[in-house]
C-alpha cells in the first residue's frame, strides 16, 4: 500500500520531465512534490516556473534579479541557466550591496541597484515578510526597465476583506507591536525563520497599482497537469509601463 495521500501523473515545468507528483498530507502547497526536480519542488515554485516559461520563453537571456532564492526548484534552475542573474538575500549585519557572503546583500525597501537595470524581478514567499511593502514595490518598480516585469508568489488569504492587514508594527525604539499572534515561515538563511509582517487579501493586486503604478495580472491555479494544487498558489505578474 502506498504511503502517499495523493499521486498525480503530469509534467513538471521546472525539470521539464513527465513525472508523478506525490503528497503525504493534505497541505499540498508544501507537500505535493516533484521527485525528479533537483531537491524536489512544490506547487508555488512550479506555478512561477510555468508563468516564466509561458510569458518569457527567452528568460535565460534576460537581466534578472531574484530576491531570497531557495536552493531547489525554480531558483536553482534560474541560477544554473540564466546568463545575467543577480540573486540576493538580506543580511541585516552587512552593508547594503555587500557581496561578502554567498549572495549579494539587498534590502528590498532600499535597493542599491540603479534605475531601469533589470528586465525581470522574481521572488517567492518574500513579500509577506517586508515591514514596508509599499516601499519595496516602489523600489522593484524603480529598478525595472520600462516594460520590465515583476513575477512573484506570496500567500493570499481569500477570506480577508482588506487588501493588506499588518500583523506587526516596527516601532522607532526597535520594539515590535504585534496585532496578531506571531507567525514565522521558513528562512533559507536563518534557522529561526522569518516573521510574517503583513497578510494580503484578495484585492491586493489593486494595491500594487496604487503603490507603484504597475499593470497587474493575477494567475490562480487548479492545475493537476503541472502539479499546482492547494492553497496560496497565486502568481502575480506586474508590468512597468513604458509611458
Structure description:
With 243 residues, the chain is of the alpha/beta class. The protein is built from 5 helices and 16 strands. It has helices spanning 28-31, 43-55, 73-81, 133-143, 204-212; strands at residues 6-12, 17-23, 63-67, 84-89, 104-105, 118-124, 144-153, 156-157, 164-166, 168-170, 176-178, 184-185, 194-195, 198-201, 215-219, 235-239. The termini are far apart.
Structural topology:
Blueprint: E1 6-12, E2 17-23, H1 28-31, H2 43-55, E3 63-67, H3 73-81, E4 84-89, E5 104-105, E6 118-124, H4 133-143, E7 144-153, E8 156-157, E9 164-166, E10 168-170, E11 176-178, E12 184-185, E13 194-195, E14 198-201, H5 204-212, E15 215-219, E16 235-239
Parallel strand pairs: 3-4, 3-6, 4-5, 6-7, 8-14
Antiparallel strand pairs: 1-2, 7-16, 9-14, 10-11, 12-13, 15-16
Amino acid at each position: 500500500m502506498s504511503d502517499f495521500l495523493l499521486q498525480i501523473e503530469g509534467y513538471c515545468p521546472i525539470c521539464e520531465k513527465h513525472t508523478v507528483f506525490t503528497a503525504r498530507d493534505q497541505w499540498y502547497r508544501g507537500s505535493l512534490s516533484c521527485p525528479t526536480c533537483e531537491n524536489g519542488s512544490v506547487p508555488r515554485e512550479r506555478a512561477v516556473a510555468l508563468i516564466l516559461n509561458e510569458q518569457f520563453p527567452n528568460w535565460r537571456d534576460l537581466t534578472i534579479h531574484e530576491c531570497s532564492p531557495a536552493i531547489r526548484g525554480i531558483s536553482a534552475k534560474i541560477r544554473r541557466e540564466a546568463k545575467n542573474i543577480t540573486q540576493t538575500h538580506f543580511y541585516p549585519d552587512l552593508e547594503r550591496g555587500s557581496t561578502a557572503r554567498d549572495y549579494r546583500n539587498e534590502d528590498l525597501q532600499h535597493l542599491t541597484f540603479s534605475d531601469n537595470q533589470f528586465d525581470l524581478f522574481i521572488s517567492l514567499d518574500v513579500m509577506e515578510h517586508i515591514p514596508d511593502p509599499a516601499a519595496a514595490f516602489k523600489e522593484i518598480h524603480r529598478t525595472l526597465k520600462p516594460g520590465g516585469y515583476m513575477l512573484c508568489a506570496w500567500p493570499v488569504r481569500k477570506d480577508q476583506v482588506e487588501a493588506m492587514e499588518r500583523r506587526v508594527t516596527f516601532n522607532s525604539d526597535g520594539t515590535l507591536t504585534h496585532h496578531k499572534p506571531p507567525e514565522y515561515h521558513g528562512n533559507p538563511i536563518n534557522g529561526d525563520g522569518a516573521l510574517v509582517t503583513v497578510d494580503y487579501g484578495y484585492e491586493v493586486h489593486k494595491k500594487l497599482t496604487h503603490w507603484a503604478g504597475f499593470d497587474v495580472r493575477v494567475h490562480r491555479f487548479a492545475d493537476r497537469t503541472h502539479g499546482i494544487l492547494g492553497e496560496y498558489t497565486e502568481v502575480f505578474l506586474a508590468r512597468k509601463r513604458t509611458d
